[in-house]
Write a structure and sequence with these properties.
The protein is mostly helical and about 170 residues long. The protein has one domain (about 5-174): Arp2/3 complex 21 kDa subunit ARPC3 (Orthogonal Bundle), CATH 1.10.1760. The chain is built from six helices and no strands.
């Protein structure tokens, strides 16, 4: 499987999670699509990333309680545009890259959403220390842990397991 296929597959999987998880627990506020948006940085061009971010945001707008249609689409596009060049600062294949970049993406997305809400006179949250700790600290950390578990740890363990099986098969043949 190519990296591009993997990035697009993970985006589809996370869009499905965005659709299904709120049906079972409305209190879960994980931004499932942050990690696939980060994976797009490393696998497609800037223009394709921006278009896919717009599609992702508009999809989320359809199924979430956004103030206006296109609000999340615009927020995702601005965040992707701001962070796209950051991919040069981190190696693509490092286990920590997805964690760090997803944290940054979720953090910046929160700031951008509040900025867009202020610009368009939409209702926004009250800024407080609690808001900063929860929305700028804890929630991006949870998003990053989800991304690291699903898109770094599981594939890493799967590759190690397959390598172990190949070695065992070779030793049995000899």
């Amino acid at each position: 499987m190519t990296s591009r296929f993997w990035a697009l597959w993970s985006l589809g999987f996370c869009l499905l999670l965005t659709l299904v998880v709120p049906c079972f627990s409305s209190s879960v506020r994980i931004c499932f699509v942050a990690a696939p948006c980060v994976l797009l940085f490393y696998n497609v061009s800037l223009i394709q990333t921006l278009w896919l971010s717009l599609f992702t945001g508009c999809f989320c707008d359809c199924f979430q309680a956004s103030p206006k249609f296109g609000f999340l689409g615009l927020s995702f596009v601005i965040t992707s545009w701001l962070l796209y060049d950051w991919r040069r600062l981190f190696f693509k294949d490092s286990l920590s890259t997805i964690f760090i970049m997803t944290y940054c993406y979720s953090f910046v997305l929160t700031l951008v959403q509040n900025g867009v809400a202020l610009i368009f006179d939409l209702p926004t949250t009250t800024y407080s220390l609690r808001w900063a700790l929860c929305d700028l600290g804890l929630m991006p950390l949870i998003d990053a842990l989800f991304a690291w578990t699903c898109f770094a740890l599981v594939p890493f363990c799967w590759k190690r397991y397959r390598l172990h099986l190949k070695r065992r098969k070779r030793s049995e043949e000899e």
